[in-house]
Amino acid sequence: MTKPSSTTTLAPAALAPISKLWATVGHVLPWAIAIGFFFVAEGSLSIGTQIMIWILFALSLDLILGYAGIVTLGHAAFFGVGAYAAGLFSIHFSPDPLIGHIFAIVVSGLLGLVTGALILHTTGVTFLMLTLATVSLIFEFGNQTRWLTGGDDGLQGMRVDPIFGMFEFNIFGQTAYVYALVVLFIWFLFSWRLMHSPFGRSLDGIRQNSRRMRAIGTPVWWRLLAIYGISAAMAGSAGALLAHSTRFVGLSSLSLLTSGIVTVMLILGGTRKLYGAFIGAAIYYLVQDSTAKINPHFWEFIVGGMLIITVLFLEGGLMDLGRIGRRLISRFRQRSDLP
Amino acid sequence: MTVTSALSVRGLNKSFGALVVAQAIDVELAPGARVGLIGPNGAGKTTFVNLLTGFLKPDSGTIALEGTPIEAMSPEMRVQRGLARTHQINTLLREDTARDNVAIAIAERKKYAWRMMRYTPQWKHCTEQADALLRDMGIADVGSRQVRELPYGQQRLLEIAIALALKPRVLLLDEPAAGVPSEEAHRIHDVLAKLPSDIAILIIEHDMEVIFRFAREIIVLLQGRVLTRGAPAQIKDDPEVRAVYLGRTVV
Amino acid sequence: MSLGFALTILLDGISYGMVLFIISVGLTITMGLMRLVNLAHGSFAMIGGYIAGYLTQGGTNFYVALLVAAIIPGILGGLAEVTVFRPLYRKAELSQVLLTIGIVFVSTAAVTVIFGAFPYPVVFPEYLTKPVDIGFRTYPAYRLFLIAVGGVVAIVLWYLIENSLYGAKLRAAVDNPRMARAVGMNVNVLFTGTFMVGCALAGLGGAMGAGIMSLEPSYALKYVVLFLVVVIVGGEGSFKGSFVAAMSLGIIDTVGKYFFSQAAPYLLYVAVFILLLWRPQGLMPAKSVA
Known about the structure:
The complex is a heterotrimer.
Chain A: H1 20-40, H2 45-67, H3 76-92, H4 97-119, H5 124-144, H6 146-149, H7 174-196, H8 198-208, H9 210-215, H10 220-246, H11 256-269, H12 275-294, H13 298-313, H14 319-337
Helix pairs in contact in A: 2-7, 2-10, 2-11, 2-12, 3-4, 3-10, 4-10, 7-8, 7-10, 8-10, 11-12, 12-13
Chain B: E1 7-16, E2 19-29, E3 34-38, H1 45-53, E4 60-65, E5 68-69, H2 75-80, E6 83-85, H3 98-109, H4 120-136, H5 152-165, E7 170-174, H6 182-193, E8 200-204, H7 208-214, E9 217-222, E10 225-230, H8 232-237, H9 239-249
Parallel strand pairs in B: 3-8, 3-9, 6-7, 7-8
Antiparallel strand pairs in B: 1-2, 1-4, 4-5, 9-10
Chain C: H1 3-34, H2 41-57, H3 62-85, H4 93-115, H5 126-129, E1 131-133, E2 138-140, H6 141-163, H7 165-175, H8 177-182, H9 187-208, H10 219-234, H11 239-259, H12 264-278
């Protein structure tokens, strides 16, 4: 085994020795696929855009649920509010997508800070219920204020200018695809840095044992609040991407089901790996897309089943399949090395 | 101003309804003090530690750390001001390495823990210091191992290492040798003997051998009150103490 | 506002609260007993409702249908407890949330595939659909029926918990599960039995309450928040607490709908929000079931 270098210690869950080559391949592969997809999948770029939006949303959930151990079912609130903020901004203020996007990030981030400040001192079931109440409250608000949000008809009539005045959102969805890819990449780099930083380590410590962290002087509440706000802003960014790429915001973006779906994606892919969000969102989306053709509700059956199986048999999500596979291979090698 | 007292506790009271768990407790720790706190189960030792660290709020009384009143502060603030503790039951980040457990504490003390970006040199600094500390304690070899794989005795040492990483002025050791098999206990004793001499230490321990070897003053707690206090030799011969406590454990 | 009007609102609120109580009481006890976060409870209520709907639409006697609507979810609940819930008790909250949401998805899909995506009615006997004279005005017989059944269920359960050996065991186990096991109580049987009763009541409530909480595939997810609110507001494991909470929520929601029809949906959540911040352990954080 190589001597573990103390500076680049990976997230604790990823301590299993992975060779450098594999790590590089692992890093390059998802992005290579994303870029390659742009050139081969002319007709179905919008599916790729959708998947990337969900990846970003799941990634934001990984920060709080995976790393900081905040069990929430209210994350759709930030996704939906981001989407509505971007949509309303384009209708009432300016059709510039980038300004609208930043507006959405700020609004959802602030909402995260405010709701987080109210509820983060609670834990367990009480916290879970408060997140449920939050998302239900915001959903009902969106449902009732028809004059603003369009109620259950959704928000229509968005105008979206070309990005930088140059790249128009065309029907083939090329601009939307590249836009989503760039935004996702930026957020990914940000998250990667963040989760390997001392700040990220302290969050992981809080998840493992908040008593220990308090005993070393960690202001637990403030740390959780900070990541809650960041994660909410990220979810809002995903919502803004959705609004801009489809020029429509549905009420369902605020629903509890949306929270459920993004949680499923993250768990399927595996928490605390960042790339888990990629795998989970992609697989979820593809399963949903293909099974929905058989029967529009079949996907729900499949996803529910996957969830049950994951919890009972695959604690680390689908990425564990890879680890189990590697372990089997190395065991096999060891055996064949014997004289 | 010269501070003559590291920790000063005056008239500390706490009760849960009719149950009095701390009654008019006075404790003075000079810098570098080695004070042992003993008493039978339920005497209020753990309550006293929780009052000091801030997990319980006293009904009345004052606690001063190097002259600053801390009784209204949150537990985290008290730690940041130099009051560290170890836990009777290992309270560690079990999925992290021993080194990272210490490094995270160092990062917290040095205020690096809020850093989200551009942190590599600081984090490297923390892990190097953590390695140095583990080396000093004679457990350099466990640095890269996950805590949950460590033998119990080494986890106990790691508890102490984390507390020392906070560079405390006052250290509360809550049964540091509890549950350690006797063949490993000497390592804990060695570490205790070598603790920095400028830190004031309050040790709670059931093992009388450890207490009498380590402490220069002993406080005996009974039913939330200070029964008596004095030098180890004095306590050993105190008939009252022998009656309630020592007689049953020390021959 | 006339007294008669106020009484009408009160009756509406109580009948709604009774449905909430019948469905949620099982959840209260299982959450208190097993420390399990169960988001799938609404699925059992939904299954009961659909069974009753299917049977009554086919001409089966309403009360027979209710009985079947309680028995089948009870059996399903027992099976689920033994197979998927038992491994969950020792797992983290997150796993419990995820698995039970998985059950919600599966049951929602199953119901949609079998019964379709549209609201699915339960056919009530004719005399229940008519208003009856209650002195100061006429009032729907259906709602009076809900109040009567809810009242009977509450009294029977209360009597069982307070006075039967089963109730004594239940109270002991909620107070201290480890101790209960240590004194040789067969906790597994107790858990399974309690779970079955809870699910059967949920099925009954789902079937009876179909006139208020209409059956559709999104039922399990839509109303689970409400059921959980009853449990959490009442205090986990608190029988009386859940009764008080269910009644209060029923009345608050009804009053909201009459007077602030615009704000009604949030009123409920705002109330829950404030209450949980004020008393995180619920209204009656009783250590015991009673």
